[in-house]
Write a structure and sequence with these properties.
The protein has about 425 residues and is an alpha+beta fold. The protein contains 13 helices and 12 strands. Helices cover about 45% and strands about 15% of the residues. Strand 5 and strand 6 (about 60-65) form a beta hairpin.
C-alpha cells in the first residue's frame, strides 16, 4: 500500500447512489484534517493504529476495525494519534436516496460510529474499487456493484433501528410568523386562524411555539402587536434596524399611514436608520448567512458578554475550509468573515492582514482573531458585569426611563383617544 492512494469519480451515470472518491491513507503522527465541512457523505474505516474524531461537540477515540461517518455540511475534525497514527480506508458517496441507505445501515446524527471485525470484506471492497481507475461502462458498473456490496456488509452488522425526526416543525414556526407579520393589524385574527392556515391542530401548533420559542402563539401575537405599537407610540423619526429588518418597520409605517389617512395626521412615519459604516457579521458555522443570537448552534455567534475562554473556543471551532491559505475571496467565506472581523476590531486593512498571514496556518490566524475580539469586548464585558452587580443603580435607571417613556406615550395616546372618539383613560 502507498502512503496515500485514491480514486476520484467525476462522470456519474447513477442517481440514487453513486461513488465520489475512495482511497487508502497511512497518516503520519498527529496528521489532522479540519475543522472543515464536506460536500458528500464520507466513511472512514480504520485498518491500523489510532486517531480521534470530533463532531457535534463530541470526541471519539477510535482504533482498528472501527469506522466513522461524516455527514455533508457538518463541521468535523479528525487527527491521527501521535504515537500510533491510524491507517484508514475512506469512501465518499452521494445520491438522491443516499440518506435512506445511510439510515438503513444504522448510521445517523446520533450514531456515527461503527465496529466491523467480522472479516476483511470492507477492506477488500475498497481495494477492489481502486483497481478500476480507468473509466468505462464495464468498470463503472463494477464500481457501482462494489459500492452496494460495501453497504450490504455494513447493513449486516447494523442492530440499531433508525427513528426519524420530524423535519417540518421549524417550517411551521416560520410560516406562522410570516402569517402574523402580514395580518397582525387585523384585530379579529386568532390562533385558530393561524392553525387553519397551516392545516395544523391548534394544540399541536401551541406545543411547537412552546418548544421552539418558549411562548404561546397568543402571547407571541400580542407581543408582536405591542412592538409595532411602540414604534409609533413614541413618535420617533428614525428607527435603527438592520438591512434584513426593514420589512418589519414597513409594517409599522403601513399602520401609521392607514391611521393618519382615516383620522388625520397623528403618527410620525418612522424611517429606517441603517448606518452605512456598520457591516454585517456572518455566522461562524455557516459563514454565508448572518450571525444571529437565535441560532440553535451556540458556536455560530459571539455574545458581547461571552468570557474570554468562550470566545476563543468559538473562534477555534469556526468553519473555514481545507485550502490552508489566508485569502479574501468569496470562495473562502469562513476566512473572509474572520478577516472582516479582525480588520474592523484590530484597525488593520484586509490587505495588511492577508500579507501578515501569508504562509501561516489557520490555527495561528484563529488564535489572533480570538485575541482581538477578546480585547475589543473586554471593556463592554467588564462594564456589563459591574452593572449586574449594582442592582440599585439599575433599578434607578429603569424607573427614570419608564417615567420618561410614559410621559411621551401619554401625549400620543391622548391624541389617539380624541380622534377615534374614545374616552380618555385616566392614568395613575
Amino acid at each position: 500500500m502507498s502512503n496515500h492512494f485514491s480514486l476520484e469519480i467525476t462522470d456519474r451515470n447513477f442517481k440514487d447512489l453513486f461513488l465520489c472518491t475512495c482511497g487508502i491513507h497511512e497518516c503520519p503522527p498527529c496528521h489532522s484534517y479540519g475543522p472543515a465541512i464536506r460536500p458528500h457523505y464520507l466513511i472512514h474505516y480504520i485498518i491500523d493504529g489510532y486517531g480521534t474524531y470530533y463532531v457535534n461537540d463530541q470526541k471519539y477515540k477510535l482504533g482498528k476495525n472501527q469506522g466513522f461517518l461524516i455527514n455533508p455540511n457538518k463541521l468535523t475534525f479528525y487527527q491521527a494519534d501521535k504515537d500510533n497514527p491510524w491507517k484508514y480506508l475512506y469512501i465518499s458517496f452521494d445520491g438522491e436516496k443516499v440518506d435512506t441507505y445511510i439510515k438503513s445501515i444504522g448510521l445517523y446524527d446520533n450514531n456515527l460510529i461503527f465496529t466491523y471485525d467480522k472479516d476483511d470484506n470492507l477492506k477488500n471492497y475498497i481495494i477492489d474499487m481502486l483497481n478500476y481507475s480507468t473509466m468505462s461502462t464495464s468498470n463503472e458498473l463494477k464500481l457501482q456493484g462494489l459500492l452496494y456490496l460495501f453497504f450490504s456488509e455494513l447493513a449486516s452488522i447494523s442492530t440499531k433501528p433508525y427513528k426519524a425526526k420530524n423535519s417540518f416543525e421549524n417550517i411551521y414556526i416560520t410560516k406562522s410568523i410570516e402569517f402574523i407579520e402580514k395580518n397582525y393589524d387585523n384585530a379579529y385574527i386568532k390562533v385558530s386562524d393561524i392553525s387553519n392556515y397551516l392545516c395544523l391542530n391548534r394544540t399541536y401548533l401551541t406545543s411547537l411555539f412552546n418548544k421552539h420559542l418558549n411562548t404561546s402563539p397568543q402571547k407571541f401575537l400580542m407581543e408582536f402587536r405591542i412592538r409595532k405599537a411602540e414604534e409609533l407610540l413614541y413618535q420617533t423619526d428614525l428607527v435603527p434596524v438592520g438591512e434584513d429588518q426593514k420589512q418589519h418597520l414597513e409594517l409599522a409605517r403601513d399602520l401609521a399611514t392607514r391611521f393618519n389617512n382615516r383620522y388625520s395626521p397623528t403618527f410620525k412615519i418612522p424611517e429606517p436608520y441603517i448606518p452605512k459604516e456598520v457591516g454585517r457579521v456572518m455566522s461562524l458555522q455557516e459563514p454565508k448567512k448572518k450571525m444571529s443570537k437565535s441560532d440553535e448552534n451556540e458556536n455560530a455567534f459571539i455574545l458581547l458578554a461571552d468570557d474570554a475562554d468562550t470566545i476563543r473556543r468559538k473562534i477555534k471551532r469556526s468553519v473555514t475550509d481545507s485550502l490552508g491559505v489566508i485569502s479574501y475571496n468569496d470562495e473562502q467565506p469562513g476566512i473572509k468573515n474572520l478577516l472582516e472581523i479582525y480588520s474592523k476590531l484590530g484597525n488593520k486593512s484586509i490587505e495588511e492582514l492577508v500579507a501578515m498571514y501569508e504562509g501561516k496556518g489557520y490555527g495561528i490566524f484563529k488564535e489572533d482573531v480570538a485575541e482581538v475580539i477578546v480585547e475589543s469586548l473586554r471593556p463592554i464585558r467588564e462594564q456589563y458585569n459591574d452593572l449586574l452587580n449594582n442592582k440599585d443603580y439599575l433599578e434607578k435607571v429603569y424607573a427614570i426611563g419608564a417615567e420618561k417613556a410614559e410621559r411621551q406615550a401619554r401625549k400620543t395616546l391622548r391624541k389617539v383617544y380624541k380622534k377615534v372618539g374614545l374616552i380618555e383613560r385616566k392614568f395613575l
